[in-house]
Amino acid sequence: MNEIIKAANFPMQPNKSQTLAGKSLLLFLNYGEGATVENPKWGLVGGQRNSPLSMSGDEIDGSDKASGGWGESLQGTKSWSIEQEGVYKVNNEMLDALKYAFVNDIAVHIMRLDKYGNAVKGFANITEFSDDNPHDDVATVTMTLSGIGKPEFVTNEPDLCCTCWCCCYFTAE
Q1: Count of CB atoms within 10 A of residue 57's CB?
Q2: 70-95 pLDDT, tens digit each
Q3: Which of 7, 116, 135, 164 is the most exposed place for a label (fewest CB within 10 A)?
Q4: Which of 142, 131, 127, 139 is nearest to 51 (CA)?
């Protein structure tokens, strides 16, 4: 048995509906010389622990006297945000770029991607950027990325080629 052991030699699970581990979702920033929406340069934001997506709609009261005593709510203006929480990583270019964007009022192009190629993308303003540095734990960074306009939901996002561990992480071998 001289064969190299690799993921491709295992049979695929027939049930495509499966639970996704939180570690399989990563946040990326489109940043770098020549980066555009059409030709992005996605870089992994270092130190990630959690990046929940939140979407909401304002509630509009559509109730009237003929409602039989029951209220009626309509959906108003929608918004979205990602609350990024992570361990502070020294000299992480993407984290440094996000802090620069916050200080200088620059909207950023972000993507939260899972290992199956499903992503949410969009432009966002950083409306909160803070750190915590307890004497008995690691330093952490928390930021709120408040979406501008409608987020884009993408399936089959191409594999990322970059110099971080994400490429190895997202491949099956």
Answers
A1: 12
A2: 999 999 999 999 999 999 999 999 99
A3: 135
A4: 142
**Helix/strand/coil for 103:** helix
Spatial distance between the Cα atoms of 70 and 60, rounded to a whole number of angstroms: 14
Q: Which amino acid is at 15?
A: N
Express each pLDDT in 97-130 by its tens digit: 999 999 999 999 999 999 889 999 999 999 999 9
Residue type at 106 in one-letter notation: I
Report the first-to-last Cα separation within the chain, whole angstroms.
Answer: 19
For 75, the token pair is 């959906």
β-pairing, 119-132 vs 140-154, is antiparallel
pLDDT tens digits along 4-61: 888 888 887 777 677 888 888 999 999 999 999 999 999 999 999 999 999 999 999 9
Q: How far apart are CA 80 and CA 4, in angstroms?
A: 45
